[in-house]
Write a structure and sequence with these properties.
heterodimer; A: 303 residues; mainly alpha; MetI-like fold; 13 helices; globular; B: 259 residues; 14 helices; 81% helix
Chain lengths: 303, 259
């Protein structure tokens, strides 16, 4: 804070025209107004409207009946599936993602680091039909991997494997989950200061001891936080699930899509809002620890 | 040299396995997309099929226009806000950090259904409503890209230096702040474009026909053609995005010469 007061004094002392950019001098939060308004209109308002309608009957009266429907099948089943998918897909993304981020840090090649950062940004946003068809070409019934394995006598589809299954979804999701992990865990790795490693070594710690007593304990909160983020990502993925499943796996985002897409009778729209509300509650339960952990780790991270 | 290679053996192994995991599906899909139907020959028939489909140019145009507006909105809102946070609003950083993570917490499906309920007709009647929501759902990424980029520079020191040397605020912004943070701005735009080019959920649930929605619809007619489209749209996005990151790294080294 002190710095900005000084800069105000500097400004008054210098030969300055106070013009259009006067706003940058202010330390009053009015500068945040555009961001606040934008989020209010295009984010909080829709979410609020959705929450309100989750508790409305078709006649517009207040009711809990939409929300209590969530505890009955098929919706209960869909929530169970989506949560399991989030938990497993989170692990399948988080562990290799951490290994890759650590490998990049260790390698220390700046060009490689930049390249991986760019490619991760693209892959993290790959999804839907393009992603589904890529994996079909590799792991589909006539895919390259499957045909190659068949020619050496291993018939995966004969053994019950199929890409259009829960396992298939987890494999395909890994293609965007791992890059997300690389993006979100890298700042935590970068903040493991070299000095700590050096001081541990100077005090006689082995590499293993460094990781056991210093590295991992510091990294653990960030790792859990990033895992929760991946959970939320897989839990709410819509495009890829829609492209890959054929109604054989009940998932909440797909049910919402069907209910509000106009394919069903209009009086079920409020049920769709209740389902979306249920998703928000579960995501919040997962993400509140994320925010809390990030707040704590921010204390020692290099900023 | 040999010991350095040994030291990095595990790291290199992880990176090689990663490379295979990333590129193998791409390779398999590219090979598949070049097949000529049932014959065992390869060619570009499936790619010619894409251009013969109606709606290709129109939907690509819509997506590019929606993306452009999203990029402009993102610039106008995020760049001044983050610059201000670094210059004189440090104590509001935690608040903004929590606010900008929110779109990651609330599922896009929920935002889409809420938008249907809340947005007035004039918004719902224009495909450009998507741009506004894309800025929101990209915010967790764009905010962080800008924040990390700006943290690497002693922004308040260099602005104070410029001010003390008599530069006006306008001059300080245009000649000192913006050139310094240009790589971060490009990184944020890069993420915005990546998200906007492939976004399907909002477009589909708000009943707009964008390029990803069109791809999904025409895919149902022709498997090889759909794979060609998948590969084509991925490579199109990659070329665009690598152009962006190239621009970013080039500018960061030529800042001094330009000004």
């Amino acid at each position: 804070m002190k710095q900005s007061t000084t800069s105000n004094v500097d400004v008054k002392g210098a030969l300055v025209k106070k013009g259009a950019f006067h706003g940058f001098l202010t330390s009053s939060p009015i500068a945040l107004l555009p961001l606040f308004l934008f989020l209010l209109v295009f984010f909080l308002w829709p979410i609020g409207a959705l929450t309100g309608n989750a508790f409305k009957s078709n006649e517009g009266a207040f009711t809990f009946s939409n929300v209590t429907m969530l505890f009955q099948d098929p919706y209960r089943m869909a929530f169970k599936n989506s949560i399991t998918l989030g938990l497993l897909s989170g692990l399948v993304g988080a562990i290799p993602g951490l290994a890759i981020a650590m490998a990049i840090e260790k390698q220390g090649n700046q060009t490689l680091k930049k390249f991986i950062a760019s490619i991760s940004g693209v892959l993290a946003n790959t999804g839907g039909v393009p992603l589904a068809f890529m994996f079909l070409a590799a792991f589909g019934p006539a895919g390259l991997v499957i045909s190659a394995l068949k020619s050496v006598g291993l018939d995966l589809y004969g053994l019950g494997f199929t890409l259009f299954s829960f396992t298939g979804l987890i494999i395909v999701y890994a293609y965007f989950q791992i890059p997300i992990m690389v993006i979100v865990i890298t700042p935590a790795l970068t903040s493991l200061r070299k000095e700590w490693k050096d001081s541990a070594a100077n005090l006689g710690a082995s590499k293993f001891q460094y990781w056991q007593k210093v590295g991992l304990p510091i990294l653990m909160p960030s790792f859990i936080a990033c895992y929760l983020l991946l959970f939320a990502s897989a839990f709410s993925a819509f495009a890829t699930a829609r492209a890959l499943t054929v109604g054989n796996i009940a998932l909440v985002p797909l049910q919402i899509g069907a209910l509000v897409d106009g394919n069903v009778t209009i009086n079920q729209a409020n049920l769709g809002y209740a389902l979306a509300f249920g998703m928000i509650i579960i995501s919040l339960v997962a993400m509140i620890p994320y925010i809390w952990i990030q707040n704590r780790t921010a204390r020692w991270q290099v900023r | 040299m040999a010991s350095a290679m040994k030291k990095n053996f595990a790291a290199n192994l992880v990176l090689i396995v990663t490379g295979i995991f990333i590129f193998f599906p791409l390779y398999a899909a590219t090979e598949f997309s070049l097949r000529n139907g049932a014959e065992h020959t390869h060619g570009f028939a499936a790619y010619r099929w894409i251009f013969a489909q109606s709606g290709f140019i129109e939907n690509l145009g819509i997506t590019l226009r929606v993306t452009s507006l999203a990029v402009v909105l993102n610039l106008l809102i995020m760049v001044p806000t983050v610059t201000w946070l670094h210059l004189s609003g440090q104590r509001y950083k935690r608040l903004v950090e929590i606010l900008t993570i929110l779109p990651l917490i609330f599922p896009v499906v929920a935002l889409a259904t809420g938008a249907q309920l809340a947005m007035p007709d004039f918004m719902q009647n224009s495909v450009y409503e998507l741009s506004f929501f894309y800025v929101v759902i990209a915010m967790p990424y764009t905010y962080r890209a800008l924040d990390i980029g700006l943290s690497g520079h002693p922004l308040s020191t260099i602005t104070n230096a410029a001010r003390n040397l008599g530069a006006s605020w306008l001059k300080t912004l245009s000649s000192v702040v913006i050139p310094t943070i240009r790589p971060s701005i490009l990184a944020a735009l890069f993420l915005m474009v990546a998200l906007s080019l492939g976004e399907f959920t909002l477009a589909q649930l708000l009943h707009w026909s964008t390029f990803p929605v069109w791809v999904t619809n025409v895919s149902q007619q022709n498997v090889i053609g759909a794979t060609a489209l998948a590969i084509g749209s991925l490579f199109f996005a990659w070329i665009l995005l690598f152009g962006f990151s190239f621009l970013g790294s080039k500018n960061s080294t030529t800042v001094q010469e330009e000004e």
